[in-house]
Amino acid sequence: LLGFVAFLEKDRSFLKSVFERVCRDERDSEVQLPLHAAVRSGSDALASPIIADAAARGEINAKDGSGWTALHVATFHHVRGKIVKKLLAATGIDATITNSGGSSGLHYFCERYMFPNSGVEVGEALIALGCDVNARNRGQETPLHKACLNPRLRVMIVDLLIRHRADINAV
To answer: Which residues of 113-146 are buried (b: 16+ CB within 10 A; e: fewer)?
Structure first.
């Protein structure tokens, strides 16, 4: 897939038409919507027109078979800040949506985000869009619990959460 994406990145209009004709509203073998697959690819050329189209159609918060939105996918799969920022800026984005496990994009961002140049900005945006720094998922984990598992940005993300009044005594 990545080789195909690299090839298609040369012609964005062709890329967009392929997704519009072939994939729109169809689900792939992992029960993901095309929006989710485009975001997961990590390719800005692939994801940007699909994000814009989904926002224009009011489908930016569409959930896959596991209740994941494109924002869950982006924060879970280490997608670079540029795509995450486009999702966060998309018209109608709801960063507070939780998946079937009760996790929001903030939970996954705290545990898995790897890009220090955009980390604080993305975290601040998630919080500004209403993500609760003390929200618990079905495993009773808060974003602060998840941040402690982050191998690269642990200190930066923990600091961000504490500045936004994360409960440091949550067990």
So the answer is: bebeeebeebbebbbebebebebebeeebbbbbb
Span 35-85, pLDDT tens digits = 999 999 889 988 999 999 999 999 999 998 889 999 999 999 877 788 999
Q: What angle do CA 167, 90, 106 make, to 5 degrees?
A: 20
Instruction: Return left, alpha or beta for 140; rule: phi > 0 is left, psi -120 to 50 is alpha, else beta.
Output: left
- 118-169 residue pLDDT tens: 889 999 999 999 999 999 999 999 999 999 999 888 899 999 999 999 999 9
- Spatial contact of 60 and 89, defined as CB atoms under 8 Å apart: no
